[in-house]
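Thread amino acids onto this structure.
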């Protein structure tokens, strides 16, 4: 993506101010003098510097000093590791089994809440009860499932904690 005309103009203005200060004060000009020259606050200058900072494109196939391509070194944070995925599937299957043992009302409330994306007020209107009653049923069902998982794995299980 190429820089916009406005960004190039800002970069040119910044470059000219820096050149002028270097000619007048040498290489040791201060940030304060640059702010004064550009008539900006330090925060505005920092924003401008960030905006006009050059972007460097690097090939992921290029090797580093140890002849490893960068795509082998840089971790993929979006990738789910196989053991984690397997553990997640196992937890979900255990929860499904335990949910089948819940009373019908708790099952229905959880299904409407998490599968149908219904609000508690909508569920309450459907059953003809108060929102606080649906909230209580939901809380009880979640507590049962939480206790079940806690008994299986006493230590926290990351993203799968209820």
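Threaded sequence (162 positions):
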């Amino acid at each position: 993506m190429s820089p916009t005309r406005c960004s190039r103009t800002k970069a040119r203005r910044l470059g000219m101010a820096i050149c002028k200060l270097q000619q007048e004060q040498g290489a040791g000009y201060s940030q304060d003098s640059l702010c004064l020259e550009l008539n900006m606050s330090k925060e505005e200058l920092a924003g401008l510097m960030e905006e006009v900072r050059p972007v460097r494109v690097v090939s992921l196939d290029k090797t580093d000093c140890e002849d490893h391509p960068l795509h082998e070194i840089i971790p993929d944070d979006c990738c789910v590791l196989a053991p984690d995925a397997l553990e997640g599937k196992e937890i979900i299957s255990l929860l499904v089994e335990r949910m089948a043992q819940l009373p019908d009302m708790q099952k229905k409330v959880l299904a409407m809440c998490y599968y149908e994306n219904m609000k508690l007020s909508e569920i309450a209107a459907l059953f003809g009860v108060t929102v606080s009653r649906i909230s209580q049923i939901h809380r009880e069902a979640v507590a049962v499932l939480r206790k079940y998982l806690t008994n299986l794995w006493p230590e926290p299980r990351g993203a799968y904690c209820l």
